């Protein structure tokens, strides 16, 4: 049986090694399965401690996708299994287990102590973006197609979206979170999701040049050496960088997201009359997507502005588990990927119809302060009880 993740240690000229990781499920667009996570997490921990490993290189098998998202088909089966057991709360242990492990892996990449290079070629969506965004050197190519399309499946932009969507300029993060719009390499650089643009045919040359670096024990020195190498490759690739739609529409995006409530923002986005196909697709995704997902996304982004990364993941785990319990996520996956009728029966037909009781329930913590599954050994300045206190304060003053 073929391994869903392959690992290799490549010898460098000065006796050190580059560790390469390949997501190896191209038929599923290298979707991040639970089995992949179970292999990745301990191996990365091991390499972080291994003295002769100087950098990590993460890629997807094939030319079509780095990682097309999480393993939502198996999540759907877990949610349906919970239904069939006549669980009155429709709560699934499998959903909690998957998201807990996924967010632990994402957090490890964000906090990795050695250079962590991600080759984001092809499709990078959802869970794939969660893997990429935490890297120290995030590379996109002429083939990169990046999106957080969760509004179309009744979820919300997770995998740290509460944190990284707030790092984008001109309210781009809010726009992308609400519309699930697809972006290219230039867009990814513009909105701080990527660091370098290099054409895909330079990948093997780049890996070879990595082995020729004069590696030292200093992480800062090694980071700078990789940055210099990538900057040189980017200069040679610059003529193939596509035009950025986010940059082109930055004034419009800033204008339509400038309101202080979600209803006006959504109405403003949908009211724009333009002939740009990219913007029109974004409008379509918002119009036909889940109103509940949009409401959750808006509030998580507002809350994420004041939260540390670890606390964002804690908040998101609660939201994800409850998304698996509520039924909107299950229905969205059914319509898009299982029955493929593209006719989801959402719980709410508009932003205004999403009731406050439901939103309060989503942001009410499932766990007490001391038994949260995520990052038990990490204590940040923002305590979990504060997260949910701020959530209630925000929700109760909304709209």
From TrEMBL:
UniProt cross-references to SUPFAM superfamilies, sorted A to Z: ClpP/crotonase
Keywords: Hydrolase
Top-tier EC class: hydrolase
Residues annotated as domain Enoyl-CoA hydratase/isomerase: 19-363
Catalyzed reactions per annotation: 3-hydroxy-2-methylpropanoyl-CoA + H2O = 3-hydroxy-2-methylpropanoate + CoA + H(+)
InterPro entries the record matches: ClpP/crotonase-like_dom_sf (IPR029045), ECH_dom (IPR045004), HIBYL-CoA-H (IPR032259)
E.C. designation(s): 3.1.2.4
One Pfam family it belongs to: ECH_2
Transmembrane portions of the chain: none
NCBIfam families: PRK05617.1
Name of protein: 3-hydroxyisobutyryl-CoA hydrolase
Organism from which the protein derives: Colwellia maritima
């Amino acid at each position: 049986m073929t391994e869903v993740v392959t690992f290799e240690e490549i010898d460098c000229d000065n006796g050190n090694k580059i560790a390469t990781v390949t997501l190896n499920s191209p038929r599923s667009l290298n979707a991040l399965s639970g089995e992949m996570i179970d292999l990745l997490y301990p191996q990365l921990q091991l390499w972080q401690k291994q003295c002769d490993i100087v950098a990590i290189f993460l890629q997807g098998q094939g030319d079509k996708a780095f990682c097309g998202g999480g393993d939502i088909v198996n999540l759907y089966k877990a949610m349906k299994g919970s239904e069939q057991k006549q669980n009155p709360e429709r709560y699934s242990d499998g959903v909690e287990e998957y998201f807990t492990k996924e967010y632990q892996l994402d957090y490890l990449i964000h906090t990795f102590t050695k250079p962590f290079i991600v080759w984001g070629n092809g499709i990078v969506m959802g869970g794939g973006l969660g893997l990429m965004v935490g890297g120290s050197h995030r590379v996109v190519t002429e083939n990169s197609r990046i999106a957080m399309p969760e509004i179309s499946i009744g979820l919300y932009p997770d995998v740290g979206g509460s944190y990284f969507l707030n790092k984008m300029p001109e309210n781009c993060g809010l726009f992308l979170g609400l519309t699930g719009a697809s972006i290219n390499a230039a867009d990814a650089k513009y909105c701080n999701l990527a660091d370098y643009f290099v054409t895909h045919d330079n990948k093997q040359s780049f890996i070879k040049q990595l082995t020729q670096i004069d590696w030292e024990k200093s992480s800062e020195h090694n980071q700078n050496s990789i940055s210099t190498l990538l900057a040189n490759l980017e200069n040679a690739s610059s003529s193939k960088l596509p035009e950025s739609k986010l940059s082109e529409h930055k004034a419009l995006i800033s204008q339509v997201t400038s309101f202080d409530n979600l209803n006006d923002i959504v109405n403003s986005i949908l009211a724009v009359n333009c002939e740009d196909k990219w913007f029109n697709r974004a409008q379509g995704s918002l119009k036909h997507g889940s109103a509940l997902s949009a409401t959750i996304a808006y509030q998580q982004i507002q809350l994420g502005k004041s939260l540390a990364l670890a606390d964002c993941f804690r908040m998101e785990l609660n939201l994800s588990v409850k998304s698996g319990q509520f039924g909107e996520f299950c229905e969205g996956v059914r319509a898009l990927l299982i029955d493929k009728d593209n006719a989801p029966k959402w719980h709410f037909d508009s932003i205004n119809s999403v009731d406050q009781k439901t939103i309060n329930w989503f942001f009410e913590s499932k766990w007490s302060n001391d038994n949260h599954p995520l990052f038990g050994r990490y204590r940040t300045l923002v305590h979990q009880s504060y997260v949910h206190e701020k959530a209630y304060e925000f929700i109760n003053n909304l709209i």
